[in-house]
Amino acid sequence: MNAVTAIVAEPDAAREADTAPLRGFVTSFAELLSATRHEHEILATGSALLARLIARDDWLPDAYVQPSAERYQQYLLHCDSRERFSVVSFVWGPGQSTPVHDHRVWGLVGVLRGAERVQRYQRTPDGALAPHGQEVVLEAGRVDVVSPKIGDIHRVSNGREDGPSVSIHVYGGNIGAVERATFAEDGSPKRFISGYANAAIPNIWDRSTR
Ligand SMILES: [Fe+2]
User: Which Pfam families match (predicted)?
Assistant: First the structure.
């Protein structure tokens, strides 16, 4: 053994998840956005990529699935260097829900663990907001889409009453920095920039052991 191999690639017992699937996902998503700017293609192909990512549940480090008793958590997992897209984990404790809100960019919602409840809203002629269609329960493995073009206002909540749920969302921008709105019952908007719950993101680029 020479001096170089002596310092390389001892397995790290603390390494808890192989993030290679997330690396593959963000690489494929960047390639998709370089290949097309048509939203319907991004949503269709992106949904298939996200469905493949959430079909397995061994790649997300525990730090990004921690619920908070205070409120739902949004952890940044990756942001494209040109801020064309971002990937986040949403973690819901029992009974937790978002306010009614919009996004201003396209979004993909994939459920990794548990379930997510989605109620869409639409404008009424007098400017208020009213539920649009039935509430939908997305079980693990399902993918939903939002966009200003196809319906951008909804309320999302944990679909499980007895434990946390985790979903993976992809948005057409750096979603934690996008200025958007939450809405009161009468439809009046309130300015909203979500930020993120975490200060550090997963290291998906260490290829020394995977
Ligand atoms: Fe949302």
Answer: CDO_I
CA of 6 to the centre of ligand 1 (A): 48
CA atoms of 148 and 106, how far apart (whole Å): 7
- Ligand 1 centre distance from Cα of residue 79 (Å): 17
What does the pLDDT profile of the chain (210 residues) look like in tens digits?
Answer: 454 444 444 444 445 689 999 999 999 999 999 999 999 999 999 999 999 999 999 999 999 999 999 999 999 999 999 999 999 999 999 999 999 999 999 999 999 999 999 999 998 888 889 999 999 999 999 999 999 999 899 999 999 999 999 999 999 999 999 999 999 988 899 999 999 999 999 999 998 866
Q: Domain 2-192, what fold?
A: Jelly Rolls (2.60.120)
Q: Domain coordinates of the chain in residue numbers?
A: 2-192
Q: How many Å lie between the centroid of ligand 1 and the Cα of residue 198?
A: 18
